[in-house]
């Protein structure tokens, strides 16, 4: 009978059988390792959907409506039902197992106690390679340690307390806020942060505040949108068209290359002199002491500019948005600023640090709107996560080498289990109420806007200084911020939100929030934030 089957069909059948056998072998091998190191988290796989198509469809359709965050909150609520330790689940997408967690113990393991077991992994390096090459943000192991050492040296207190750079750009921004009626602070602050970041990093005044159409500033817009698509498309990201993206990455890199070449031409004596005088000495110059390869220098610079732009800009924009809805707090903050600094001169670094209400407002903004709402690590060896397995979720989860774990800072920041019970001094967690920080500070591992552990955001202090400086300078000049867009809608969307059996209506509450938030590389308002500033 077999002699009637053509050779090609036999060959195809044999290949299919071999692939299935290999797939089963891989699964069995993986299962043995999972059991050796722990167990499984609750599965969100439907029995009729072994490839996880419904999960992929759910995620994609929610993403297209800017409801990615709601999708993940929903999945956590569904998977947690009735378990003592909620907020862990897993799903298998096209054969690859993904673990999702919002359990502080698991996050602590990945970022600190089992730091060497987890890293960015090959997949992330490939996804970001066109844009960032092998830089601090994507590297692991010794390569990361080397980058971290260089970058950290530059971000010393002495450098970040130099507020002149911010003031120069502030002098351009402040008049633009009162140009009559509503202004889009999302856009203005992105441009401000790009200008400040470029000056700090490689000493160039891009002035995108006044000239938003410069090639470098424009390139960043295309780059951000496509890189987000590459990230989100996961295993299918080879389908993303990258022609224009690569052209714009080249524009940005060529722009930086010019300054890198100039810096490379400086003699060691020149560099030392600049360092000593602390004049015209930038992050690029600091890198030159250990890196002489121009490609690597460009990658490190582009990384710091990329990492520091939207994160800080959107946090300030969202803080101003919330302040426009909470005028009593603006009055309190202005009183504090008047007492510590006055309204006639810029604050010093020490004064900035003493402004508790300003820091409370920023902490609260980063709690509700963490710029990096989701993050991921790959297991670099066979390992485990301490919690989420077993019937109550209290046993370890086994994670074989190559396993992918996604955690959600955003879910942790809103989780009722991780906050004190609601009271007058602790209003519901979904509300922006900076007064809650007067005598409360969350546990280290449940409030993580900058991550924690050895890989904590290296620009954290720079960002806090920049953000508080901008907020103070604005409130020194303007006494009232008016919301010039639709008020957030308070009607709950109850149709599909699921409540945990014994928990509050976390997802439902989250769904009431606005403005519409896009989760791209970072989380940011999808549309502009229109505000008017009154003296
Ligand atoms: C509100 C502002 C900011 C937030 C919320 C933020 C958040 C984060 C987070 C969560 C990470 C960890 C990413 C990961 O390991 O997967 C990170 C890393 C990093 N951030 Fe920030 N960031 C902010 C501002 C900045 C600024 C202003 C800079 C630079 C000027 C910066 C530079 C970096 C760099 C270089 C890393 C990589 C550190 C490493 O892998 O060792 N960030 N940031």
From TrEMBL:
Family annotation (SUPFAM superfamilies): Cytochrome P450
Alphabetized Gene3D superfamilies for the sequence: Cytochrome P450
Tagged with keyword Cytoplasm: no
PROSITE patterns linked to this entry: CYTOCHROME_P450
Cited InterPro entries: Cyt_P450, Cyt_P450_CS, Cyt_P450_E_CYP52_ascomycetes, Cyt_P450_E_CYP52_fungi, Cyt_P450_E_grp-II, Cyt_P450_sf
Origin: domain of life: Eukaryota
Keywords: Heme, Iron, Membrane, Metal-binding, Monooxygenase, Oxidoreductase, Transmembrane, Transmembrane helix
Coiled coil, from the record: none
Record has GTP-binding as a keyword: no
UniProt-listed Pfam families: p450
Transmembrane segments: 6-25
Obligatory cofactor(s): heme
Family: Belongs to the cytochrome P450 family.
PANTHER family associated with the record: P450, PUTATIVE (EUROFUNG)-RELATED (PTHR24287:SF5)
Protein name, UniProt field: Cytochrome P450
